[in-house]
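As a next step, the fold was encoded as tokens, giving this record:
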Amino acid sequence: MKYCARCLQPDTRPGIRFDDQGVCPACNYHASLAEVDWDERRRELDEIVAFGRAHNHSGYDCIIGVSGGKDSTRQALFVKDVLKMTPLLVNLGYPPEQVSKRGVDNVANMISHGFDCISINPAPGIWRTLMRKGFFEYTNWCKSTELALFSSVPRLAIAYQIPLIWWGENAALQLGDLNVMGNSGADGNSLRKMNTLGGGDITWLLGDEIRRDRVLQYAYPSEREMEDANLRITFLGYFWKDWSLVDNANFSVLRGLDIRKEKPWDIGDPLGVTSLDEDWVTFNQMIKYLKFGFGRVTDYINEDIRNGRMTRQQGIELAERYDGTCASRYIESFCAYIGITVDQFWQQVDKSVNPALFVKEGLGRYRPRFNVGVGVGL
């Protein structure tokens, strides 16, 4: 594993490519912000706003997919208060066994700022079946739920004839997943190509129990469907100088967002501002760490290094301490939900642990072969 010469981005992130100097796309993009003509970028933003207003057939001139978390709260308020648009918010609801009270309260808090919001709740039995299937086929319970999360917004936009969709960060620019890069930094119509969505393929969902007509909510619209509906997905973070985990969290906490109070080593999150609506993403980040050698903490660190809030050495110490950590209670509640034992959980995880990166010391116990930050990607 090799690391970016500037931050702690590893070359194991799906879809990433370092340049000839060993620098990751996200660091290069951040450096380029100093040269941006922000007046020109605002004119580009205004043209997109005009597109939304010109296609207002329903009383709403845009749609925003929301979870009630830090990013969506800030986006929704920016669109309403700064762009003076009338957005329809779309929230994908989790079943009762998964959603947290904090998550429900945060959605309610966001709506209280003056929004209309539609909640989409896929059938809980199919949700559970697909979650179990994703875990055992990909060691990733989010494999199906991410399909529903990303697909629900454009599906509703087509149904309501609202062609402008605001999305948050451009993962190609701000994380380095170049698969999603569109025709410009603002263009999000290539979201289907991101690693999580796999091009929108849902054939793996289907089987004797699950027919195609039962999983429409998980099916990302085809390119033809999007073209016919004139859909335009736009990355709002492209137009902000200060899009980051910390900045978005600070903004939203001041406007009522409730964040986590758990210890950093329980959730692999030193600030407690991510994945607020449920707890199981916590151990999925741990699994990601065992697959690719980095977890949620690395994303925090990389942003802070680029913004001058942390040195690379401080980042190394933080990653070594918290990346890949997770309290057992989250694993136990997930196992109870999909009907497996904790041993079965670790037996499945063991199949996906990257042996080039970790030494197995026992079931559920793995030691990294790598030293964080050592090995530059030249």
Remarks:
- Residues 36-239 form a domain with the Rossmann fold fold (CATH 3.40.50).
- The chain has two domains: 36-239, 262-360.
- Strands lie at 62-66, 87-92, 116-120, 164-167, 232-235, 358-362, 365-368.
- The longest strand covers residues 87-92.
